[in-house]
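WARN no homologs supplied; continuing
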Amino acid sequence: METDLSDYASSPPSTKSSIDEDEVNRRIRPCWHRYRRLLESKGFHLETFRDVKSFYEHFPDYQMPAAPGHMQIHTRMDEDALCPDPGLPDNLFRGYRTCDGLKVMVKAVHVHSRELDIIRYLSTPPRRKDPMNHCIPVLDLIEVRDDGLAFLVMEQWSSQLISVTPCCLRLFLAALRQCIEHAVFMHKHRIAHLDISIRNLLTDYNGHYAYIDFELSRRFNGEPNPRVQGYRGTEIPPEVEHGEPSDPYKIDVWAMGVLILRACKLTGFFIPQIMELVEPMLCEKPDTRPSMEKVLRMFDSIVRSLDPAQLQSSCPTQR
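OK structure emitted
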């Protein structure tokens, strides 16, 4: 069951004159123990040493990491202590929903951050129900305004693009289509992700894919020709490297082209028509890159042109 986030949609935004943009948009390092009871009162349990120990007891094939965050447990008090995952940044914590055991990821953000504003916007009606919206479901949004932070509670998805089960070309292209379609959806709502990359792509292993990390994302209300400068995402187009004021939507197009190439390399799928689609997306001159909407139309046309037998071919890396 998802929490209705409509009540959060009207939270008054701060004016630019009242906040420090760099300060509110940098990663937060909360004292998780301090907010443990608050999260539990909302129905979310943060992972403890007992939880980690139980996991490795039930799955002995997994080797317990030697990192300090997963040290050997000796006392009952140790078992009740929170156990941060050393593989995650300090603003993320694993847990589960107490009513049904659903695994969740809790992310701490500044209450006036762009990320919170965008997640709130994308997670409220009617955008939440739009089939083009492929965000990870937000289960709750918990604000602690006195401390200037908020917790985003989301379903815990996997960063492994291809699961252990066989994957065919049809399913692979369906995953890519979701990536492109969600970018079209964001651009339609005047949002640029600005950090589209394969490392920011997650799956629930049930045919759904979603972007994460909206820390660099921008929402441009009433700006017909927005420009960004001085940002550093994962996939950097030439104009950004040169320090030029850049079209944020064409930055996303470039990054999407790189994502498609990396996904094809990862899976071993090589489709000449897809390579032809990517070529103009990676044009050095941003004005000549297609819009994300046009990319989606061309992608759909390519998929329709493929032979059904080809679509059923298995992933080369799993043969």
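The chain has eleven helices and nine strands.
OK
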